[in-house]
RNA sequence: GCCUUGAUGGCGGAAUUGGUAGACGCGCUGGAUUCAAAAUCCAGUUCUGGCAACAGAGUGUGGGUUCGAUUCCCACUCAAGGUACCA
């Protein structure tokens, strides 16, 4: 009987579904284990072979842990809010919900086909109202909280109000906006309700603020930095301006230190931790304020090198800095305005990309140096970013290269404050340099000088030690339709929360998904979007006749909102009273293994840690880090195929110019080479490289033709790079009559490894693989391809090896001429047991360190060995099927079932390793030296007398090297001796 | 520039704490089976020389530590990913 994988796979997938085999209980005597995948965005293109890599790995782990006696939670869902569905809706008018629904169906079919053991009863979709209700609810919890720096945790905002009532805010140490005025209890009582709300807003963990954004008037939307190219929008090429808009922000900066500290507690890949550390960007230094001469104001700066303060020769403010307009003297007004204008036109990214050009402008104002009393000029310059630190720096040209370049450019003095260091060429950024010419810190090394200067600053009340973070608060508003609506309406200009737990606020229907004519976000198009408030007033998007209406918030939440807590929802996905029930949360607690791509390092993986910590602080979750271990699976790359179009340009070949001609790869290379030779000899040049592929018409009087590489769909190309010419011709009408210049009767394409993408026609679909080889082959092959964490090109060349292995394995359980199923009840031999236990050991170890690729190899070895031993014994083949079942579950189920077992193999215990079967072949040799028995050695091979003598010699020699100590072990191999030193 | 990771046959990739480098698979070569093909099975396959036994070289480059280095240390080259006037 042959291995009909299609029948087997369909049969068992149905069995798993019908019997709910992978449904996890929220209560169970077994220990829990939570295996999580990053849920996908259901795009219109469906899954390609790159997507399932991580899912296969986690599925193997989940199945393995079930065999090991754990209660495994292995859920899946969809991150179904997102931009592509909205773009599609704008183009076609199709409702995003509908497109999303269709895409999800495709995804589900494809996922099922691969045989994953997901518990689909817990599926979540971020765009589902039953789900986003809780995303909105979490938003409200953030709004109702502030961050107490003393307690290092988030607390209810009501507590803060109580303190304000009792004693004002002078003792409050909270993460909040800068420039909060100190007030007393008395003053608090006298504030109006609105004033009180405005003050509280400065403490809330989510707050409205004027944020500078990249606004594209033509598209009516805010663009991310990477959506802008050369100052115009990537899409459409419309101008973009920097504009202040009122937007919701998340006070993630309050958690900067805890997000940093938390990394020590979790087992995540070091590169990923590094990029989070980098992103948070902690730096220690000091705040220093400089008094502006003839003004009542001060410039606050942050510096990591307060010890270089005696080297300050100017100050630089970001052009956007508040102080600029107030301190600029009349003489410089025009020049400063002009400079500000010029920089505001450049996006932040442009400014950062263009680091070579030095520009700046003197303001005419000066500060007083706090220690020397010297007059220090104030400049503005776009190398200072408004968004970092205080938007101002004390410039120390001798100690900072940027300040140095600026000073050189504008002829500002460069005082040297380092002992024996030459600064005539460049600044000295070395922290080991000794400070000089600096009054009371002269002669000190940097570390000591920093301590001393901070002490002095604090004594004088003009500065203090400070830790600064690069991390910024996260903007949380999007001018989009397809996202979670904010549960917010406005009353007297102040935001009010809508209690969605009792009064759900759903995404309304709109006719158009574009912004409104007057520039409001797409939700402004909603007509009958209204909600009755408890105050008996109508909250609505638009004015309703004769009623007082309050405006609803029209922005939606960003993509990361829904994905920042979904892993907790899986624990209790159907709960309609809570975001997740206490009991379920306490049982599952956290994710034991999380698998996903590293591209989310500073997005999803940072925001979700932030929300987790917040919810933990408020007593809503039992742990403050949600994923104990994380693995980044590497990307599977595509291998693009190229055909080479020959294009004529000169007169005599103009007839052919109308024809499309494709030249086979080697022929094309040959033609180019020949030309190169001709060209070079013509010009008398030898050995000079001339690129003739694209140029050539300029290099001589003769106009050469050239070749243009064109992506061909990889499905037209076989494993030996041969193009299916007919299929290619039918692909596009313009290729219908194309001619092909062949080599050996074939058209050979060029190959290149690139990211898998629709536009590169290099996408390989898992459906085709499942069709041709089966899901088990796909699963094993993807694992066999190489280490999980490494990026690798998709290449089907080796798939026949894995498929052949499964066929071979199938044959082990079938015997006789017609291949009838048969296993014998005989006792197993030593050799057979050795093979089995070797494999158990290897698979156990491999899964423990995620080396799935090598366990596929060990299965192959096992099956080869058992085949040559002609082993068909149940005692060996039953455990073998269990071993393989995490990798190839369908074939394992089928064989398990054929061997007369009831129920799913996934419920069976993993075979137990017995080491005694592995050491049986070692032998103890008595070793004598110079005729005297000295010791015995355990050796794993049969050795000749000569070899034993050689081993003894080697042993003695080693002993001499070790000055008498005995070596731990000697490995003796016929012909060679190797000692292992103890 | 900085941070991180990596570099091993024709190819994908193995190699426990430093101890027979190249497991396993692909490809290739030869053979069996077949009228023939597919499928399957067996043998060989790092490179150089040799019919062979065998000899020499060999894990990006150059040094070092060690009885012994793919593995540890130093310097460099290249590649991939992240990040960037962060004061």
Question: Can you describe this structure?
Answer:
Helices cover 34% and strands 18% of the residues. The chain is α+β, with helices and mostly antiparallel strands. The strands form 10 sheets. Strands 11, 12, 13, 14, 15, 16 and 17 form a 7-stranded mixed β-sheet that branches. Strand 32 (814-815) and strand 33 form a beta hairpin. Helix 25 crosses helix 27 (852-868). The longest helix has 19 residues, at 96-114. The chain is globular. The model is unreliable at 650-657, 684-703, 920-924 and 926-936 (pLDDT under 50). The structure holds one RNA strand of 87 nucleotides.
Write the layout of secondary structure elements.
Layout: H1 5-18, E1 32-37, H2 52-67, E2 71-73, H3 83-92, H4 96-114, H5 129-143, E3 145-148, E4 153-156, H6 157-167, E5 174-175, H7 185-190, H8 193-201, E6 206-216, E7 221-223, E8 228-229, E9 232-233, E10 241-250, H9 256-262, H10 270-280, E11 282-292, E12 298-303, E13 314-317, H11 323-327, H12 333-344, H13 348-353, E14 361-368, E15 375-380, E16 392-395, H14 401-410, H15 446-460, E17 463-469, E18 474-475, E19 488-491, E20 494-497, E21 530-532, E22 538-540, E23 549-552, H16 560-563, H17 566-569, H18 582-588, E24 593-596, H19 604-617, E25 630-632, E26 636-647, H20 654-657, E27 661-663, H21 665-683, E28 706-712, H22 725-731, E29 739-741, E30 750-754, H23 766-772, H24 775-784, E31 792-793, H25 799-812, E32 814-815, E33 820-821, H26 830-848, H27 852-868, H28 874-884, H29 889-898, E34 923-929, E35 932-939, H30 945-961, E36 969-973, E37 976-980
Parallel strand pairs: 1-2, 1-24, 13-15, 22-23, 24-25, 26-31, 27-29
Antiparallel strand pairs: 3-4, 3-5, 6-7, 6-10, 8-9, 10-18, 11-12, 11-14, 11-17, 13-16, 14-15, 19-20, 19-23, 21-22, 26-27, 26-28, 26-30, 32-33, 34-35, 36-37
Helix pairs in contact: 1-29, 3-4, 23-24, 24-25, 24-27, 25-27, 26-27, 26-28, 28-29
The chain binds one RNA strand of 87 nucleotides through helix 10, strand 12, helix 13, strand 16 and helix 14.
């Amino acid at each position: 009987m042959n291995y009909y994988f299609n029948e087997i796979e369909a049969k068992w997938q149905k069995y798993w579904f019908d019997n709910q085999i992978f449904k996890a209980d929220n209560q169970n005597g077994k220990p829990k284990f939570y295996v999580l995948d990053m849920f996908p965005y259901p795009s219109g293109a469906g899954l390609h072979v790159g997507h399932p890599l991580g899912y296969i790995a986690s599925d193997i782990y989940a199945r393995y842990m079930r065999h090991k006696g754990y209660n495994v939670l292995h859920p899946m869902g969809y991150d179904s809010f997102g931009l592509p569905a909205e773009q599609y809706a704008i183009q076609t008018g199709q409702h995003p919900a509908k497109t999303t629904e269709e895409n999800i169906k495709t995804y589900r079919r494809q996922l099922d086909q691969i045989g994953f053991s997901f518990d689909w009863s817990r599926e979540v979709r971020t765009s589902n109202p039953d789900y986003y209700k809780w995303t909105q609810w979490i938003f409200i919890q953030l709004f109702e909280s502030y961050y107490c720096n003393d307690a290092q945790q988030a607390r209810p905002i009501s507590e803060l109000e109580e303190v304000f009532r009792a004693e004002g805010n002078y003792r409050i140490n909270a993460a909040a906006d800068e420039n909060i005025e100190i007030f007393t209890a008395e003053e608090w009582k006298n504030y109006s309700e609105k004033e009180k709300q405005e003050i509280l807003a400065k403490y809330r963990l989510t707050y409205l603020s004027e944020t500078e954004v990249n606004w594209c008037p033509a598209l009516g939307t805010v663009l991310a930095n990477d959506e802008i190219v050369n100052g115009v929008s990537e899409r459409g090429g419309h101008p973009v301006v920097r504009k202040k808009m009122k937007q919701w922000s998340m006070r993630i900066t309050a958690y900067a230190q805890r997000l940093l500290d938390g990394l020590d507690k979790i087992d995540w890949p070091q590169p990923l931790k590094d990029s989070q550390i980098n992103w948070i960007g902690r730096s220690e230094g000091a705040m220093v304020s400089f008094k502006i001469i003839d003004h009542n104001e001060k410039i606050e700066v942050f510096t990591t090198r307060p010890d270089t303060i005696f080297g300050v020769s100017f100050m630089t403010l970001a052009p956007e800095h508040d102080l600029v307009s107030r301190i600029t003297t009349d003489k410089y007004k025009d020049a400063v305005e002009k400079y500000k204008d010029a920089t505001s036109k450049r996006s932040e990214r442009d400014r950062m990309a263009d680091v070579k050009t030095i520009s700046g402008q003197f303001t005419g104002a000066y500060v007083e140096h706090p220690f020397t009393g010297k007059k220090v000029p104030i400049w503005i310059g776009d190398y200072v970013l408004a968004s970092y630190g205080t938007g101002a720096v004390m410039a120390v040209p001798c100690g900072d290269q940027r300040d140095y370049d600026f000073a050189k450019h504008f002829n500002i003095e460069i005082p040297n404050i380092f002992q024996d260091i030459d600064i005539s060429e460049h600044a000295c950024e070395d922290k080991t340099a000794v400070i000089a010419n600096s009054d009371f810190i002269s002669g000190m090394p940097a570390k000591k000088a920093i301590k001393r200067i901070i002490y002095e600053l604090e004594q004088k009340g003009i500065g203090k030690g400070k830790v600064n973070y690069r991390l910024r608060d996260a903007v949380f508003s999007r001018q989009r339709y397809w996202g979670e609506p904010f549960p917010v309406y406005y009353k007297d200009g102040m935001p009010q929360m809508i209690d969605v737990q009792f009064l759900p606020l759903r995404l309304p229907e709109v006719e158009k998904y574009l912004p409104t004519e007057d520039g409001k976000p797409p939700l402004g198009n909603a007509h009958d979007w209204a909600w009755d408030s408890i105050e008996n007033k109508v909250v609505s998007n638009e004015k309703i006749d004769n009623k007082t209406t309050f405006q609803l918030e029209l922005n939606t939440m960003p993509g990361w909102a829904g994905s920042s807590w979904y892993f907790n929802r899986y624990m209790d996905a159907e709960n309609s009273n809570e975001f997740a029930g206490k009991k379920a949360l306490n049982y599952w607690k956290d994710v034991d293994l999380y698998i996903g791509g590293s591209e989310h390092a500073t997005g999803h993986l940072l925001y979700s840690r932030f929300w987790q910590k917040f919810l933990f602080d408020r007593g809503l979750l039992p742990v403050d880090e949600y994923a104990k271990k994380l693995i980044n699976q590497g990307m599977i790359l595509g291998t693009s195929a190229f055909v080479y179009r020959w294009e004529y340009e000169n007169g005599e070949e103009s007839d052919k110019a109308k024809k499309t001609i494709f030249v086979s790869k080697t022929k094309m290379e040959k033609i180019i080479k020949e030309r190169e030779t001709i060209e070079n000899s013509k010009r008398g040049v030898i050995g000079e490289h001339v690129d003739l592929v694209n140029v050539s018409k300029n290099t001589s009087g003769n106009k050469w033709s050239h070749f243009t590489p064109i992506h061909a769909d990889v499905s037209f190309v076989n494993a030996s790079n041969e193009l299916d010419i007919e299929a290619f011709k039918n692909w596009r009408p313009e290729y219908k009559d194309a001619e092909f210049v062949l080599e050996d009767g074939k058209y050979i394409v060029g190959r290149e490894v690139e990211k898998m993408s629709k536009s590169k026609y290099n996408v390989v679909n898992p459906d085709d693989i499942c069709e041709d080889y089966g899901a088990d082959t796909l699963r094993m092959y993807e694992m066999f391809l190489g280490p999980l964490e490494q990026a690798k090109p998709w290449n089907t060349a080796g798939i026949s090896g894995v498929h052949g292995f499964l066929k071979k394995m199938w044959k082990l359980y079938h015997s006789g001429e017609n291949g009838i199923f048969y296993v014998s009840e005989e006792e197993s031999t030593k050799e057979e047991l050795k093979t089995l236990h070797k494999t158990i050991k290897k698979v156990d170890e491999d899964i423990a360190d995620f080396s799935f690729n090598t366990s596929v190899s060990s299965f192959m070895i096992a099956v080869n060995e058992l085949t040559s031993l002609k082993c068909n014994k149940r005692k060996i083949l039953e455990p073998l099927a269990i071993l393989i079942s995490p990798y190839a579950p369908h074939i394992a189920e089928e064989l398990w079932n054929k061997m007369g077992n009831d129920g799913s193999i996934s419920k069976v215990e993993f075979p137990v390793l017995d080491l005694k079967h592995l050491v049986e072949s070692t032998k103890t040799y008595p070793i004598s030296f110079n005729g005297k028995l000295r010791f015995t050695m355990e050796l794993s091979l049969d050795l000749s007398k000569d070899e034993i003598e050689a081993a003894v010699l080697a042993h003695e020699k080693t002993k001499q090297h070790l000055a008498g100590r005995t070596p731990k072990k000697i490995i003796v191999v016929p012909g060679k001796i190797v000692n292992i030193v103890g």
